[in-house]
TrEMBL record:
Residues 1-27 form the signal peptide. It comes from the Bacteria. Residues 19-198 form the Outer membrane protein beta-barrel domain. Keywords: Signal. The keyword RNA-binding does not apply. This is Outer membrane protein beta-barrel domain-containing protein. It holds the Pfam family OMP_b-brl. Transmembrane segments: none annotated. InterPro entries: Beta-barrel_OMP (IPR027385), OMP/PagP_B-barrel (IPR011250).
Amino acid sequence: MIRMSPARAFLCALPITTLLLIQPALAENFYLYTDVGESSNVDRYQVHPDGESGNGPRIGYGAGVEFQSGFGMELSKNKLGERYQEYWFYGDDGITYDRSFTEYDSIGLFATYRYRPEETGFFAGGRLGVHRWSRRAMFSSPSIDATYQDYLSDNDLAAGLELGYRWHPQWSAALTWTHYVVDEVDSDRLAVRVSYHFK
């Protein structure tokens, strides 16, 4: 596992931000996007047989800028997944149970590169950056009327690939894969993205 302090995350993001500030004239297009994707399980706790995974398709969104060289930067916001579990116990007083709910969110800053064969509309690219993940967990035990909440966040690395097609000067679609380092495990997110380009 690779863990990053806020200072190291800032140092990684600084060259990207500097490039955006000192070379605005080189920007080829600015875009906004939304995507629908599914992430692998990021819950580090053992899955109970009665647990229900909530890592189904979820909506993400972001914004980016691309320079004439093909390099650029991108800011993203994604929900990496959630899990709801019930733990059943059979005791002298009958059946009792505990509940747990955990969800993960991510905000990422990436350096990007896209290769575009001339006059085809197709493109392929990759991204590398840092993301700030957060984990919110809630545990409750109705049998003893107790509730416990926990919040944890940290900075870690993320990287991904994409393959897409720009069928209109202002519209494109892509299939993206992003690998996130989260807590003590990793998460992979596969998504279908639609982007609107302002330039």
